Amino acid sequence: MSEDQPIVSAIWTALGTVIDPEVNLDIVTMGLVYDVELDEGYAEIVHTLTTPGCPMERIITEGIKRAVADVDGVVRVGTRIVWDPCWHPGMIAPSAFKEEGDE
Q1: Sequential DSSP letters for the chain
Q2: Pairwise CA distance, residues 40 & 29, whole Å
Q3: What confidence score (pLDDT) does residue 3 get?
Q4: Which of 27, 54, 66, 83 is least enclosed by beta carbons within 10 angstroms?
């Protein structure tokens, strides 16, 4: 395990608090986050959106920056939106579809 791994894990946890307001799911569960890169305190979040021109782009991007900036060990945050691979509903984690009471 690299010395950055606990910080990277904490970043993923923080990203799980960022909600896409159109679908009311967090961006990790939705499969929108592709990678977390950490280099000497600089965290770059590689992510996508449900569609190019998504009206929630600014809300999601600012949510990412706020959530990750609060992680101990992160001194600067950047985001990089990519379109390959293209997001599709099959990327949503199966846990998002569990009904209350399911095990």
Answers
A1: --TTHHHHHHHHHHHTT-EETTTTEETTTTT-EEEEEEETTEEEEEE--SSTT-TTHHHHHHHHHHHHHTSTT--EEEEEE--SSPP-GGGS-GGGGPPTT--
A2: 27
A3: 79
A4: 83
Residue 98 is predicted with a pLDDT of 75
The rounded Cα 44 to chain-centroid distance in angstroms is 11
Q: What is the pLDDT of residue 99?
A: 64
Low-confidence stretches of the chain (pLDDT beneath 70): 1, 99-103
